[in-house]
Amino acid sequence: MLITAGPTFEPIDTVRGITNTSSGKMGYAVARAARDAGASVTLVSGPTALAAPRGLERIDVSSALQMHDAVMARVAKADVFIGVAAVADYRPKEAKPHKLKKGTGTVTLELQPNPDILATVAARKRPPFCVGFAAETENLEAYAAAKRKRKKVPLLAANLAQHAFGADDNQLILFDDQGRHELPRAPKIVLARQLVAHIAKLAFKKR
Ligand code: C5P
Known about the structure:
The chain is α/β, with parallel strands linked by helices. It contains 6 helices and 12 strands.
């Protein structure tokens, strides 16, 4: 199983960048749960303060482009891909090779879109079983169901970003072809084990 976790960091110059408040806790919990279920796990992790879990391979990356490349280099061997990372949608058009100096006027930062790693993996000719996460701050259900269709993934786990980011507990709604399944509020590791069990049922049912 190939899993992404954490935020990404998009450099503005040599000492500054754009990131988000993802702690990586949910992705790491999913990686642990997958490992405990017997999977061979590769965790592609953006910058987090979390220790590498034992018994799995962790690849450290920083930017969305690095995360994209690390995933693409390994996806052919994966049966399941779970995108838990909060990948930055945009990156500065150019990262300055020196520290920007302070001026007096306003500064404009031009941003360009990052590749959508999950959608790219899901669009492969023979994709692994793909699972997306959706962190929304409003209209959770409608946005999540639409996101599942747009990214063409069989399973999407939705949570409210303002509750999930950084916390030890979470609450998920899983969307798949059968409809919606609520996983009530619980520690992230408990939800991760339920999610992995759900994935195993869907991904390996025909084998
Ligand atoms: O569109 P949104 O960013 O809300 O989608 C979230 C899902 O897509 C997550 O599973 C996330 O890991 C994945 N994603 C990605 N690459 C991006 C943006 C999101 O893999 N550039």
